[in-house]
Every structure is written in structure tokens, then in C-alpha cells.
Design brief:
single chain; alpha/beta; Rossmann fold; seven-stranded mixed β-sheet; 46% helix
């Protein structure tokens, strides 16, 4: 299977962000998007933000997750008072760094007592980011006090699935499907070529 080019990875984020902004978070009056400072995460966030604003006319804001600045970011998010927080962690940042930043960001949100629905990106969920966060009792309590949603992809059926995450007593996570969104053939092809690999590999354009 041909690997994706960098341009295709950016375009894939535009297509995915469009679904997130138009269909997954459109019912909220105010949404915070949080992402690490890299091109891929910024691309999908910007696409989702633009579509959300276009579809709803409501307020969105973008927040940068930076190691060592998690408390300041959480303070800014608290001041924004969102109804939902979309955690766009993935992209080209090394896996362990991304997971650590995801966990520390959730820790900061918990410490700031920001109560909002949390929407978790498929890539960070797939590599165990949410599972790693549950190892911290304070984060676990925080997640149990909020609704947590995860969007995933069914690559064989060409669907995006919007799920609610159910945290069990043993810290296992069950996903309960709420909605399914069909994607175009073009989108499905890009998803398959990108997500079938365990890590991102970009071919030269």
C-alpha cells in the first residue's frame, strides 16, 4: 500500500477536521481546541475550528499544549469557559513525548477544575494515551466527573465513529458508539494509507 505524502497527511487532517467541526462538536456553544505545537495537530485543529465556526457561528479558541506550560494553558482555558474541550494530540511529535504531554495536560485541566465534555483524538487514544492518564488517580477522578468522548475510524467500512468512553473499575476503557459518519472514497483511501501503518511514514511528494 502506497504511503502518504506530507501534503496528503495535511489534506487528510482538513477532511477529518471538517467532520469534527460540523458533526461531532456542533451542538456546543463554545469549544476549546487544545493541540501540541506541530504542523499536523495544528492543521486538523484549524480545520475543525473553521468548520465549527462556519456551521454554528459560535465561539472557538485554540490553545497550545507545551511541556512546562500546562498550568498556564489550563488557566487560559478556564478563563475561556468552554462547554467542550477537544484534545487534538497526535501528528509527527514522537509518541512517548506526545503521550506524556497529553497526560500532563489532562493533569493540569484536573487541577484547574475545568469541567467540560472532553473529546479525545483517535490517534492519541489508539496509542494508549487515555489509558496512561488513568494511572494517575487525580486524572481518573477528573475523567469520571466529566463526559469523555473518543472518535475512532472503521477503516473497512469507511466510517468515523463518535463514541462515549466508559471507564471501568479496573481502569479498562469501553467505547459505546453514539454516531457514525460515512466518509468519501477519497477520505477513506487516505485514512487507510495513513492509519494502517503503526507510525507515520511520509513518502517524498
Amino acid at each position: 500500500m502506497a504511503k502518504t505524502t506530507f501534503g496528503e497527511e495535511i489534506y487528510l487532517r482538513a477532511l477529518t477536521g471538517n467532520i469534527i467541526g460540523a458533526q461531532m462538536v456542533a451542538d456546543y456553544a463554545k469549544v476549546a481546541f487544545v493541540a501540541p505545537k506541530n504542523i499536523i495537530c495544528s492543521a486538523i485543529s484549524a480545520a475543525a475550528e473553521a468548520t465549527y465556526i462556519r456551521e454554528t457561528g459560535a465561539q472557538a479558541a485554540h490553545f497550545i499544549a507545551t511541556p512546562g506550560q500546562e498550568a498556564a494553558t489550563a488557566e487560559a482555558i478556564a478563563a475561556f469557559q468552554p462547554e467542550a474541550i477537544v484534545l487534538m494530540f497526535g501528528g509527527e511529535t514522537p509518541l512517548e513525548e506526545t503521550k506524556a504531554l497529553f497526560v500532563s495536560t489532562l493533569k493540569a485541566l484536573a487541577e484547574a477544575e475545568i469541567f467540560a465534555d472532553l473529546v479525545v483524538h483517535v490517534r492519541i487514544f489508539a496509542v494508549g494515551g487515555l489509558q496512561a492518564a488513568l494511572e494517575d488517580p487525580a486524572i481518573r477522578d477528573y475523567l469520571l466527573d466529566n463526559e469523555v468522548f473518543v472518535y475512532t475510524a472503521d477503516l473497512d467500512k469507511g466510517l468515523f465513529i463518535y463514541n462515549i468512553a466508559i471507564i471501568n473499575d479496573d481502569n479498562s476503557i469501553a467505547l459505546d458508539e453514539l454516531l457514525a459518519f460515512p466518509v468519501t472514497v477519497e477520505h477513506a483511501d487516505l485514512l487507510n494509507r495513513s492509519l494502517r501503518d503503526k507510525t507515520l511514514h511520509w513518502a517524498e511528494a
